[in-house]
Amino acid sequence: MLHLFPAYGISVILLQTSTMKRLLIFSLLILSIGACKKDKETQADKDDKIIQQYLSDNDLEATKHASGLYYNITKEGSGYNPTVGYTVRVIYKGWLTNGTVFDEVTTPLDISLSSVITGWKIGVPMLKPGGKGTFYIPSELAYGENAVGSIPANSVLIFNIELVDFY
């Protein structure tokens, strides 16, 4: 018995076969493993489809950032943009694609950009003081496979964020 790919549980009996038959069997195994990997959809792919479907269902437009985050700047602010080293003063609302609101702050909250989810670290610096935006954050830029409070694992998060100021 020849163990070709033990990690995949693939073992083949190649007894008394010609070299050509062995090559054919080996080639077929390689092709089938390659095909299996192509069929697997990543969580990032799933999240992207969820975001695109949400945008389509709600007749919304957004721009896709290289990170996978989608955004729509709804109000331009003025001045400079914050970076991750700053503390930002924000008003925001966060919800899931099914409409469930999981967090909302109606009075300005000061929070360090270094202590927030990656989606915020990418999105909030797109805003200037007085600016507003909506951010569609794939799960890998949020909490990933972890459920947090009322947020299920692998959830796409949506935030309306107003950047009041930063320091």
Describe this structure in words.
- The chain is an alpha+beta fold.
- The chain folds into two domains: 2-39, no CATH class; 43-166, Roll (Chitinase A, domain 3).
- 25% of the residues lie in helices and 32% in strands.
- The strands form two sheets. It has a six-stranded antiparallel beta sheet. Strands 1-2 form a two-stranded antiparallel ribbon.
- β1 and β2 form a beta hairpin.
- The radius of gyration is 23 Å and the shape is elongated.
- The termini are far apart.
Would you spell out the secondary-structure blueprint of this structure?
Layout lengths: L1 E4 L4 E3 L6 H21 L3 H15 L5 E2 L5 E6 L11 E10 L4 E12 L5 H6 L8 E6 L19 E10 L1
Antiparallel strand pairs: 1-2, 3-4, 4-7, 5-6, 5-8, 7-8
Please give the CATH architecture of the largest domain: Roll
What is the average per-residue confidence, as pLDDT, rounded to a whole number?
A: 87
CATH fold-level topology of the largest domain: Chitinase A, domain 3
**Termini distance?**
67 Å
Structural Rg: 23 Å
Total strands: the figure is 8
Number of helices, where a helix is a run of at least 4 consecutive DSSP H or I residues = 3
Notable traits:
167 residues; alpha+beta; Chitinase A, domain 3; 2 domains; six-stranded antiparallel beta sheet; two-stranded antiparallel sheet
In brief:
The chain has 167 residues and is of the alpha+beta class. It is built from three helices and eight strands, in the order E-E-H-H-E-E-E-E-H-E-E. Strands 3-4-7-8-5-6 form a six-stranded antiparallel β-sheet.
